[in-house]
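Human: I would love a firmer grasp of how sequence relates to backbone shape in proteins. Take your time, and here it is.
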Amino acid sequence: MALYRDTGVVLRVQKLGEADRIVTLLTRKHGKVRAVAKGVRRTRSRWGARLEPFNHVDVQCYTGRSLDIVTQAQTVDAFGAGIVGDYPRYTAGCAVLETADRLVAEEGEPAMRVYLLVVGAIRALADRERDPSLVLDAYLLRVMTHAGWALAITECARCAAAGPHRAFSVAGGGAVCPRCRPPGSVTPSAETFGLLDALLHGDWSVANAAAASTRRETSGLVAAHLQWHLERQLRSLPLVERRATAPAESGTHGAGRAPAAADGRG
């Protein structure tokens, strides 16, 4: 049995028997790993609380016949403490973890880029310095680009004609020119296209200045694009609270849920 050590983010957990737990982690070197943590549900467990969703941990495991076995776990970053008590951040964080779990389908395959994107998004949510809805949409745009589903924003998704373009097709891959525009396309505002581009490239001064209506429209397009390619709806996305929020000490303003795009699946 091979012993290995890695750092990873806990994506989800499942009960096993009376005291054990199956932990799914997205790790730096080994990609997605499913391992059994024995006895962690007992009240006397010394490290069971470390293996909870959102936590960034250093784990030691050995390979088993079907599932690996966790033998040690040390906390690297306790991101969960800054997320689980805040509903908008918690639901956005759940969508981050579920998306990563779906995109990294094969266990044991390296997924360094997705791992880094997950750690960055969860850290931003836990730090409470940015609006959780913006953090989620920025993460989804970037992780979809890594998966090969890059959203066309400044050029036509079909013929690559330079924009700006007014129409947007989820099935077509994003912005489309008048010649390539398929039936069922929607016409987002110019501000929405600007916000999509700002989130993809990390221009937070533009993103933070976006109006609540622009953020909701952007979130709807991002969610529809993701779920079209996944060919199924994420369970966590309908629960995400879409509202414009300032940093934690400044309060919140605005409210509303993201609408689904006209030709999105799910």
